[in-house]
Amino acid sequence: MSALKAGDAFPSDVSFLYVKPTPETSDVLACGIPTKFDASAGMNLHPISLPTTYLRDQLANHVSTTTEFANKKAVLVSVPGAFTPTCQVTHVTGYINKLKELKAKGVDTIVVIAFNDPFVQAAWGKANGIKDESIIFATDNEAAFSKTLGWTLGPRTARYAIVVDHGKVVYAEKEPAGDVGVSGVDAVLAVL
Q1: Is the pLDDT of residue 110 over 90?
Q2: What does the DSSP 8-state code read for residue 96?
Q3: Does any domain span residue 42?
Q4: CA end-to-end span of the chain
Q5: Domain membership of residue 172 as a residue range
Q6: Strand pairing class (136-139; 109-114)
């Protein structure tokens, strides 16, 4: 696969891991159980790949799946890392601050992915006051999806945004290193 562009179908077999917010996991230090967030429209589900034997053994029977982008308008935002300066101060905060505007333009799902594990992503969401699934903080495990697009920064996920409307890509832009422009919330709002 290569970089996505407007008009492409969102690829099949794309999934991310996230910790579903629950009352039991509302504390920033609570870990929870990772869930497979299946972003693909009409895809075949495959077993998830967890980073360590401990996680595979502990979570093998606890991971559920959902299909998310098939019949929704979704915004997928990728950042190099949780709690990093540009990602925190400029990029993700914009989406949090303009969540109501995104929803008013018909966005059903917002997913923020990074190279980090699902526990760090969950803590990042909670540290930003996200205690529900209004914005899902997920992991692109080993940057697998980002690598298929060629959108990485070394081993990490690059900074980009993709808008998917009922399985079809309507916007897909990757940033030059260190910038927040085409992947920022204002650029995304402009195409909705």
Answers
A1: yes
A2: H
A3: yes
A4: 25
A5: 15-191
A6: parallel
CATH number, domain with residue 110: 3.40.30.10
Per-residue DSSP letters for 15-30?
EEEEE---GGG-STT-
DSSP 29-64: T----EEEEE--SSPPP-----SSHHHHHHHTTT--
pTM of the model: 0.82
Q: How many domains does the chain have?
A: 1
8 is a domain residue: no
- Which residue of the set 39, 75, 82, 87 is catalytic? 87
User: Is pLDDT of 65 > 70?
Assistant: no
pLDDT digits (tens, 9 = 90+) for 78-93: 999 999 988 898 899 9
Determine how β-strand 109-114 pairs with β-strand 73-78. parallel
Q: Active site includes 31?
A: no
- Asked whether residue 1 is assigned to any structural domain, the reply reads no
34 residue type, one letter: P
Q: What sign has the CA pseudo-torsion 88, 39, 168, 116? A: positive
Q: Is residue 9 domain-resident?
A: no
